[in-house]
Protein: Class I SAM-dependent methyltransferase
Organism: Methylomonas defluvii
Amino acid sequence: MSADSTQVRQRYDRLAPYFDGLEGFLEGLLFRRLRKKLWSQASGAHILEVGVGTGKNFPFYPDDARITAIDFSPNMLEMARRKQQRKQIAVDLALMDVQALDYADNSFDTVIASFVFCSVPKPRKGLKELYRVCKPGGQVLLLEHVLSSNKALAMMMNLFNPLILNTFGANINRQTLKSVQACPFQKIFVDPASSDMIKLIRAIK
């Protein structure tokens, strides 16, 4: 694991016990609805969730699919395991870095991630891994916060990004849509209901 990845992992390990509480207000106000919408598009027999975190997406898992979920933070994954056992969620959990997935090419019908690529040190490398393990004709579904298209707001986001990154391990100025477009997907769709800074992206391999 690179030095950057180790630093980000350590930040999430530190935040793991408090993570659900820290995001509780936004989760109830906005994120939960967006997660539900994202997961409503998941399809196929085998689904990979990247960046499972504390298991916030567990309520939206489809009943008719095998779910594999990974995270690179041992402490976040432990929180997810506790929630899995408490709520009896059918999911295979694994400790893994999205930048180096330990899965064969063309393994999953849907690969899905929510608010993950803000914290991946090399996002294009991670996205290429998602493309690699996705089956031909399969889909990658992403819910991500991105750099604003408003120049003044973008300047402020860039200014405060080092502070946010050092505190929480997440970047607030990523241009994730451009990173997805740099991968060889056949088609890329952005949900028209997406806001300026939160995008729902569907990419077809």
In short: The CA atoms of residues 131 and 205 lie 7 Å apart. The chain is about 40% helix and 20% strand.
